[in-house]
Amino acid sequence: NAGVTQTPKFRVLKTGQSMTLLCAQDMNHEYMYWYRQDPGMGLRLIHYSVGEGTTAKGEVPDGYNVSRLKKQNFLLGLESAAPSQTSVYFCASSYTGQRQETQYFGPGTRLLVL
Amino acid sequence: GNSVTQMEGPVTLSEEAFLTINCTYTATGYPSLFWYVQYPGEGLQLLLKATKADDKGSNKGFEATYRKETTSFHLEKGSVQVSDSAVYFCALRGSRGGSEKLVFGKGTKLTVNP
What we know:
The structure holds 2 protein chains of 2 kinds.
Chain A: E1 4-7, E2 10-13, E3 19-25, E4 31-38, E5 42-51, E6 54-57, E7 65-67, E8 73-78, E9 87-94, E10 104-105, E11 109-113
Parallel strand pairs in A: 2-11
Antiparallel strand pairs in A: 1-3, 3-8, 4-5, 4-9, 5-6, 7-8, 9-10, 9-11
Chain B: E1 3-6, E2 11-14, E3 19-21, E4 23-26, E5 32-38, E6 44-50, E7 56-59, E8 62-65, E9 75-77, E10 86-93, E11 102-104, E12 108-113
Parallel strand pairs in B: 2-12
Antiparallel strand pairs in B: 1-4, 3-9, 5-6, 5-10, 7-8, 8-9, 10-11, 10-12
């Protein structure tokens, strides 16, 4: 049971390039999330999904797109990377959206945009 | 909207010292409250949680009590170890609309010296 995994672990992009971050979970969770972590800002929610084929915007969605074609995978896309998107990206998942549920986090992807 | 305020860091302590990290929240209804810990180079992992007023969450010697009257969920440990060095995040999950999302504080970095 690998839990939540993220690919890649680290990436350097040039401004304007595109890339996709992959999150996979093997816990049969319905809910999946993408966060970004910046110094002094805590974690901020980018997008989330409450089930296969559904996505919703979080707190900071601009410049990102997501897709949830399979229940176990949640993809985060950057169509045209900007230096402001330099950050550490975390994926998380949970069984349901109920308030007592724990979210399980992946190890993170460090992205540097030059 | 829901929000979490936690004490600014960094916090530096000597081994066996007493630890308190303050966390207060703003939310409607009855949120669930969480403390997550992030060890260097890793993703977040749940440390403890409490889902109703006066509940005490505990794990690995850490404790926090859900105080509705003061809207607080302060993290405490009686005797810290070097291995407790990490970033600690207070978070809440709302009970009304948006309960699928976690709202995080900005994190408090703890360094414990031998």
